[in-house]
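tmp note - Amino acid transporter
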Amino acid sequence: MSNSLFRKKSVSQVLNDIKTGEDGHGSMAKVLSVKDLTSFGIAAIIGGGIFSTIGNASYDGGAAVSLLFVFIAFACAFTGLCYAQFASTIPVSGSAYTYTYVSFGELLAWIIGWALILEYAVSNMVIAIGWSGYFMEMLERFGIHFPEYLATDFISARDGFNEFQEVIKAGGVPNPRLVSQEEAFRTAPMIGGFKVLMNIPAALVTVFITVLAYIGIKESRTTGNALVLFKVIVILAVIIIGAFYVNPENWEPFAPNGMNGVLLGVSAVFFSFIGFDSVSTTAEECQNPQRDLPRSIIYSLIICTVLYVTIALVLNGMVSHKELKVDDPLAYVFKSVSQNAVGWQKSFLSSLSGIIAVSAVVAMTSALLAYQIGQPRIWMTMSRDGLLPKSFGKIHPKYKTPSFSTILTGVLVAIPSLFMNMKFVTDLTSVGTLFAFIIVCAGILYLDKQKTPSKFKVPYVNGKYTVGVLMVAALAWTYSQGGFVEHLTEKPLLIVLWLVWLGLAIASFLQRFSLLPVLGILTNLYLMTELGISNWIMFLIWLIIGLVIYFGYGYRKSNLIGK
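out:
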C-alpha cells in the first residue's frame, strides 16, 4: 500500500494526457497572453491584502509592517521562481497539486490539492468581506443607508459593541468602525433568542463573480484587465495624494509593539501575497505557457511588492497605527485626515474617501474573479486524475469552462462569507498555503536531480557550503537574542525549522542543492512557525477531512491504480 500511496505521474505522461485528450475531458480556449497573465497575477495578489487586511497588520506592527512586506516578498520571490520553473516544465492547470504529483506522488499531491481548496476559497471569503466594507461606504456616500446588521458578521459586531462601550466609559470618542459595529449589534433583530447578523453584500458579489467565471475565460479576461488597470490607478492616486498628508510623527515609534507586534501581522501580510501561484492554474488557456507563465509570475510579484511597501508607509504616516484596525483602511485614512482639515482640503479629502470606496468596490472585484477562476481548475485537474468524481472535470461545451466546479466554488464561498469574521478566515488559509509553497520548492530540487528539461530554470547557486554557513549564523544570532531554550519555549515549532535546516545543510553538502529553492523552503517554514496554534489546529482538522475523502474515494478511483 505504501508504494501505491506514492505512485507518481511522469512529466511526459501529464503533457501527453493534455495533448491527446486521453483524460476524457473537453479542451479549453487558449487566449491568454503574457499581459493577460500578469494582469491576472496582479488581480489575485492585490485584493483583500492592500484594501483590507493591511489595516489589521498595521494596527499591530505600525510602520514597521513595511519591513514585514519586504521579508515576505523575498520568501514569495524564492517560491515564485520555483513556481515559474514548474509552470514552464508542466504547463497544465493543476498548479502545486500537479507539481507535487510528479515530484512526490499521489498522497502528498492530494494533501496539497486539498490545501489549495482551502487557500482559494478562504481567500475569496476575505476579499468578499473587505469588498462589503467598501460597498457600505460607497452607499453612504450616495445617501443610501443599508442596515448595518445585514453587512456585518456576528463576531465583529459583538466585539465592536463591547469595545464601543469601553471607549464611552473611558470618556473617549469611538472611531467610525466601532460606531457602525455598535449600530449593527444594537439594531439586529432577534430570532429564537439570537441576534441575526449576516454579510449579504459579500455573498451577492460572490454570486455575481461566479456567473462571470462560468460564462467564459475571454469575458473574464477582458473584465479582469480593465478592473486591474483601474485598481492600479486608484492605488497610485492614494500613494501620491496621501504622501502630502503624511505626518512623520505617526511613524514614531516605528515598531510600537516591538518585533512581536510586527510578527502578529504575518498571516495578514502573507495573505496579501497569496495569488501569484494562481497564475499557473490558467496554463491550459495560455497561448505560450512555457514562455509566458514564468514571466508573468515574476512581473506580478515585483509590481505588487513595490506597491505594498509604499502604501504601508503612507497609511501609517497619515494616521496613527491605532486607528487602522478597520476593514476599509484606504478609505478610512482620508476620512480621518479630512476631519482635521479646513476649507477646500476638507471637502477634497472627504470626497476622495468616497471615491476610493467606490473604486475599491470595482477594483476588488478583479481579485474575486481571479480566485473564482483558479479554484475550479484545481478541481478539474484532480478530477482528471480520478481523485474526484468526473463531474468536477467536465468542460462546458459552449463556454469552455469547468462548469460544475465553478458553481460549487461559488456556493462554498458565498455561504460562509455571510457569517464569518475576516481575521478568522485570514488565519485559516496560511498554514496550508505555506505547506504547498514548501513542497513546490522541494519539488524543484527533485526536478534538478532528474535533469528534467525546462525552458525556464531557477538560477543555480551552489548551496554546498552556504546552507550550513547560514544555519551556523542563524544559531549564533538566536543565542545572542536570549538563547535556544527561551526561543523554543515561546515557539516550540522552531525545533522543526532547525531539524529541517540541519537536514538540508547535510543534503546540500552531499548533493550540491540549488540555494534558492532551499531558501524558499526555509523562509516558508519559518513563517509557518510564526502562526498561532489555532491556525495549525484548523488546518489539521481540514487535513483529516481531506484524508477521509481520499481514502474513501480517491485512493480507490485513481487513474494510476495498477500502474
